[in-house]
Amino acid sequence: MQTARGKAFVFGDDVNTDVILPGKYLNVTDPQELASHCMESADPQFARTACPGDVLVAKKNFGCGSSREHAPLSIKYLGVSCVIASTFARIFFRNALNIGLPILESDEAARAIQAGDTVSVDFNAGTIVDETLGLTFHAEPFPPFMQKLIACGGLVNYSKTKIAARSS
After folding, report:
1. Based on the structure, what is the number of domains in the chain?
2. What CATH number is attached to the domain comprising 26?
3. Largest interatomic CA distance in the chain
4. pTM surpassing 0.90?
5. Using an 8 Å Cβ cutoff, are 5 and 120 in contact?
6. Which tens digits make up the pLDDT trace of 17-66?
7. How far is CA 167 from the centre of its chain?
8. Which of 10, 64, 83, 137 is most buried (most C-beta within 10 Å)?
9. How far is it, in rounded angstroms, from Cα 45 to Cα 37?
């Protein structure tokens, strides 16, 4: 999970969790079913056109609204490699990390990247490159333990790994 590269899908300000995944799907437990409804309120074609590795870009306050983990799970299960936003709602930020969905805050990148641009990300350095525009942006990289948590697939798997290491 040190790098990602994909096509950018761009959304605006205040994309709330009901837009990311409408509440009527909260009883869905199948990961692929969750993914098939990701962002359908904002772009009904998103789940059908996004490919594994693609990048979701948004402006300020992405993931505001309820505290449900279903929203970041739908993004992760769709195969989106990371979310870049000007800012994240704090509960979404924490939920994303808890499930191992890489997210980066960069207002400059969020404002400059356009839909369809090819974007590459180096998570260790916090570098975001819009290859289409030839621009490089910087975000605060996660500390090594958070990178390990994301690489493990989230807090539960990270904790299991730490417990297993202590047991041996």
Report:
1. 1
2. 3.20.19.10
3. 50
4. yes
5. yes
6. 999 999 999 999 999 999 999 999 999 999 999 999 999 999 999 999 98
7. 32
8. 83
9. 9
